[in-house]
Amino acid sequence: MSDFTSNFWALYVAGITLVSILACLVLLVVTGKMSPSTAADNTTGHVWDGDLREMNNPLPRWWSYMFVFTIVFSLIYLVLYPGLGAVQGTLGWSSAKLHADEVAKGNAETAPIYAKFTTMTPEELSKDPKAMAIGERLYSNNCAQCHASDARGNKGFPNLTDGDWLHGGTPDKIKETIVGGRIGNMPPMAAAVGSPEDVKGVAQYVLSLSGSPHDAALAEKGKEKFVVCAACHGVDGKGMQAVGSANLTDNIWLHGFGEKTIIDMINNGKVNVMPAQASKLTEAQIHVVTGYIWGMSNK
Ligand code: HEC
Ligand code: HEC
What we know:
19% of the residues are buried. This protein has a two-stranded antiparallel ribbon with strand order 1-2. A two-stranded antiparallel ribbon has the order 3-4. Helix 3 crosses helix 13. It is mainly α. A hairpin with a 3-residue loop joins strand 1 (43-48) and strand 2. The chain contains 13 helices and 4 strands. It has helices at 7-33, 61-80, 95-118, 122-125, 129-142, 144-147, 171-180, 190-193, 196-209, 216-225, 227-233, 259-268, 283-297, and strands at residues 43-48, 52-55, 182-186, 270-274. Helices cover 55% and strands 7% of the residues. It folds into 3 domains: 7-80, no CATH class; 102-181 and 275-297, Orthogonal Bundle (Cytochrome Bc1 Complex, Chain D, domain 2); 185-274, Cytochrome c-like domain (Cytochrome Bc1 Complex, Chain D, domain 2), CATH 1.10.760.10. One heme C binds at residues 142-143, 145-147, 156-158, 160, 165-167, 174, 177-178, 182, 184, 244, 272-275, 277, 289, 293. One heme C is lined by residues 142-143, 145-147, 156-158, 160, 165-167, 174, 177-178, 182, 184, 244, 272-275, 277, 289, 293.
């Protein structure tokens, strides 16, 4: 309850909570005091099924006490636990803390299992069936939602099994990617290239780099303009792992194939983010998953 953007909402929620509890109490007292509009024989005048008459008897005492008890219970609860706007509660309990404690407990319990793995290199890990079984689990829980369950990726999410790397495929580079995340950033390039015709030419030249079907005359013209791309993709178009630029010669297309896709890429650029995992996984877990990923592309 500490995520409110302004104090107003915390007070608003706390106010509604307290007023509701108070209203329950008032309801009990007022209805207890009200004199019922009943006939002399203590019936309300409601009749069902011919002769079933509704009486107007007071609530049983135990029922009223229960009602009061729920009100007292909720007030004590709100003192002890978070629930009243931004008030933390005197016990200091929070779901986030509970989660963090359980994760810490789980990590402490599994530490002995990982102890052996941290002394092994990722290459060695990739040949250890037990480490790979754990690596696969870690992968399914933390990576599969983006890189697909078979790690072959998807549009925008790189295939991790094909030996084609934006940021490098050595164990060190893979670990660096997992720990700190990566941002693939290609700025919009249309202005630097020139007219839409020039952009089309560069796109045709890019297609020619991988031996894909292309218009040779247009590609020849586009080649001159490719100098503005060479800064990141290299003069030969093979990409530079230091900037995470794609290899344009290998016929592997992270963002899709074809002239239209490449033109879109040149016109709009692309920011593609791999989130850092250091805060989610322990060092030992990252070590094991690094071995798992390295092993997938080095079978
Ligand atoms: C929210 C989606 C997402 C999650 C979760 C995710 N990744 Fe990624 N990952 C990406 C994207 C997007 C890229 C491409 C970044 C770029 O274009 O530069 C990437 C890139 C990578 C790369 C670099 C690939 C290359 O060609 O250099 C590796 C290795 C990798 N991820 C491993 C993992 C592992 C291991 C996990 C789980 C611990 C994981 N990723 C979780 C989205 C994700
Ligand atoms: C400032 C660096 C930079 C420049 C300049 C640049 N790019 Fe890129 N380009 C990148 C990066 C980084 C990626 C990878 C994006 C990602 O991580 O998803 C990329 C990706 C691409 C892709 C997608 C490849 C695929 O596998 O889907 C194409 C196509 C492309 N660039 C073409 C070009 C062309 C053509 C030019 C010149 C007009 C150009 N780029 C200029 C950095 C650059």
